[in-house]
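Sequence in, structure out. Go.
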Amino acid sequence: MGKIRFSQNKFTKFIAGKGFYLALALSLIGTGVATWVVVDKTLNSVSDISEAPIISDEQRESNYNWVQTPSQTPVEKPQSDVAISSQTPQESSSSQPQDTPSQSSSDASSDSTEAQRPYRQQFMLPVSGEVINEYSDGELVKSVTLNDWRTHDGIDIAAQAGTEVKAAGDGTVMQVYTDSMWGKCIEIEHTNGLVSYYFSLDENVAVNQGDAVTIGQTIGTVSDTAMCEVGLDPHLHFAVKEFGEWINPIKIME
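Output:
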């Protein structure tokens, strides 16, 4: 009995001496268990969130019943039942009854070509006769009357005084005037930038400025009023400009 009591006293003293460390160990164990419980719950929550179904914006809107208060402004949404055509304007127009594409294209091309094609006007010499002095095309030639060298920017057509002078083509009379060197003159404007000139006419002309004339219409008569060419036989000095530049009058004749 004495030995057993001694052992119990010794165990009691051992427990009393180690009580602090035992309490500390139990506290750490409790803290670890509590921490594990919190971590386990957190992991389960994350797993539940990752496994949750994805809801689109349209589904989310349908899950709520929006209530409009008087202070809210209605917002119109695009109507889903409106039909939108995917055809291009060309496809839409091609669905309508019409001529074959090749025929329509050909007709349009022909009309465009005709609209852009310049009018081919007919011309004639204003008098019948021999050309006694030709167009010099910028070259200097000897003037019989003035006895100097100069360009001859038209043609001289032999014709007796009083011979009728015809309009070389359809046009409008631009000017009727008297020049100190070329005498009585008439200028007629035609199409495509052409202007015809008639020099050394008689003072009594048959047209006035602004008159419309037709090819072959009498506009005056031949005379000797051009002082710069009185040394030649009776003739008409006829000249033509194209877009402001002198050209050979024969060029426009067919």
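Check: The two ends are 161 Å apart (CA to CA). Residues 12 and 134 are 154 Å apart (CA to CA).
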